[in-house]
Amino acid sequence: METNAGPSLGASSMVDLAESSEEQSPVIEARLQKAKSLAENGLNLYPNSFRPQDRVGELRKELDGLTHEQLENLTEPRVLAGRLMAKRDYGKSIFFDLKDATEKIQIYARKDKINPETFEFIRQLDIGDLVGVQGPLFKTKTGELTLLIERLELVTKALWPLPEKYHEMSVELKFRRRYVDLIMNEESRRIFRLRSQIVNSVRNFMINEGFMEVETPMMHVIPGGATAKPFVTFHNSLNRQLYLRIAPELYLKRLLVGGFEKVFEINRCFRNEGLSVQHNPEFTMMELYKCYASFEDLMALTERLFGKVALEVLGRDDVSYQGLELSFKPPWLRVKFHQALTQIGGAPESVLTDREKALEFLLSVGGEKSASDTLGKIQAKIFDIKVEPKLINPTFVTHYPLDISPLARKNDLDPTLTDRFELFICGRELANAFSELNDPLDQRRRFVNQVAEREAGDEEGMYLDEDYVRALMYGMPPAAGEGVGIDRLVMLLCDVASIKDVILFPHMRPEN
User: Which structural domains are found in the chain, ordered by start?
Assistant: First the structure.
């Protein structure tokens, strides 16, 4: 045993911690008293001197296939560090399960192979403690790869006990205490490793397509780029109100004006909206912009992107999600917005042209009206109720109405529609894209209309961004842009139903 003499948590601090604890129990009290005793005897409970040289996952790949006799010929001791996850005390021998960031391994202390003081110290260790160990590897009679402890050092003392079993944690508690969820639940660790791989795969795809990754401001003077209610903050030195961004769109398109022709950003966005299995107030989105391209070009790019990511992280382009079998093989289904309302949603033809008929149908299917509802907004509400849940396999819905697409280019054949698509998979929107509006006069008129809607009570209406209009006055090349919801893509490829399962620390309502 290493004593690790040095700074540690003092006895008075232990008392303070005990008095401030919200969930006292005899187990916690016993742990605090044990830690206090160890500290008073000179043991540093939180040293930073042990350095592991091996990882369990790599050792298993290297040695799991060897026999007991072959392992005996490997005389080099192994040095590991990890958390104690289980303990089996048989008097003269003590077994633990030790887990590092990769996998678990059994470690074993024998009374006749180690000095008595160290053996008794090992007996006092608690589940959850972090330790460093050194010793040779062998296999038990049951074939379990095991490390025989020759040296053990306490790395971090755990004062709070782990749940005995993962199922003891409620769903809500696993989100509030994600750190415990990650300790106990291999599935959660798998999801977040996979998330990292997905984000890296998306980034590498974009770079290989010739896009440049950029970063744009998180705090905006004017919120824009999407129809959503922003979070408001205040900058003291500037003495002005700022908004957490709802989308990076208008800054990214300024870069097109500046001469960068293919850009993308993967970063956080913030929308002051409700919590649900599909929504978190802050979320991750990738936005991309490409000059001399149309929304149709981006449909082809999206098919390639999703297929490539699925192949890289799952090894296939057929995806299973919540019992549904999906194919990412192109071409994906394409349907126009108005056709989807009638052919998929069962809406009468009258909802396409008559606002009152559309409103009547919306109310008949359980929708809600508001004073600022235009015909297009009513149609969008009908779409959300009657069409979106039915779009299971990857589907591009195209040609959205102009009044719900304030930043999209008008369609040349029908100027009441826009060159826009949204991608739906399993009843969820995963991407939104359009050929960009680069006419500054038309853009200003649309901003003015959005401001009028805000003044009429629409909290999600856009603001008038004069600097963005000024940028367009310098000339922005024809372009197309797209936003892809990274969290929802991760949900899809990880086969989980709630966005909270793919965000490490989701926002939660107050506990009380």
Answer: 52-162 (2.40.50.140), 196-345+387-501 (3.30.930.10)
